[in-house]
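U., I forgot to send this yesterday:
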Amino acid sequence: MTWAVVVVGLVLLVFIHELGHFAMARAVGIRPRSFYIGFPPAIFKFRRNGIEYGIGAIPLGGMVRIPGMNRLAGKDVAAFMAPAVSEDAGLADTVQRIRDLVDAEDYAGAREVIPELRTEVESASLTPGARKSAARALRELDEGTGTDAYWRQPAWRRIAVIFAGPAANILAAFVIFFAVYATGAPSQNASTKVGEVESGMPAAIAGLRPGDRVVAVDGRATSTFEKVSARIRASHGSPITITVRRGGSTVTLGPEKTVKSGNRWIWGFVPAADTVAYSPGHSVRLAAAACWSVVSGTVQAFTSLFGSHRQGQLVSTVGIVKISNAALKVSFNWYLQILAFVSLSLALLNLLPILPLDGGHILFTMIETIRRRALAREVYERVSMVGFALILLMWVIALSTGNSPH
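Result:
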């Protein structure tokens, strides 16, 4: 069950990210063409005001499709239509007309010819592959020449739409941190709640579990962890029983002998931290401080990523899931803190100036603003390939260093 909660939490963070893009696009007058929870193929979908909403079969967050992300060129139209034209030469004249209009930047004129080309494609005898490619050409034409195409918008609108995704994750992290501090944040003081049980130790053999709350040792009530620890140490290796509250019931575990560790006797478990609830105003300040701490720590991790000394600060997706699962077993607020950290880290990762990340799109929007002309699709595609390689390299480093001994 805990694994399911962890996965749902991570999927929710990605969904919140995509929701930020979607909401801002609508706010600045760009109509997204689709918005999915998960990725297609669709399990369920419907259309409203020209937008397709759906639930995808692949539960990996969310997806928003914004029209005309790259400047459309005549050669793009020709490339997408090439399979169809090779199978039905009658399409060539209309394709060439549209190509010329697009190259002349007469997008209104190109849009007038789109219905004619769509009718010809529907009437043509094409293989499934050629028909699919032609359908993409028609979609790219319709979206790339429209007045709400992303690439045709002022720079401030494009940056707002792209930045809204990371901003949604930043806001989510702040809200989560605030909720944790307002309802009970883990403190530096140990509680009587069990945080971790060491494998092979008397506590594990007796059946002690993370989340149990110790209420007595050898039948004597223990209201603080200091009292629990003192009575375990006083056993000097003798068998003891520990009584815990578990799921609304009281359970007595043992007897099991304590074992010596250094100069003290232990049973083999680690207490969870005690929790402290703060006022709303104090919670706001603490949440802001926590966000800044994550930002500075993440920046430091990235700057030292390729160094020789402090590698291992980045954690792979697998590592995040494991850490989150362990935190959830201790307490839900521990897990929420990890979730807030991941949300903020996701925002910072996406703001790296690398295509296809959001930061890369913001950088290229600035470049296009300076040169006063949109870059071609192939420029985005080639730079994105390099970006994918860099992201993959970072992921491999995070995976390898995250699993190395420390």
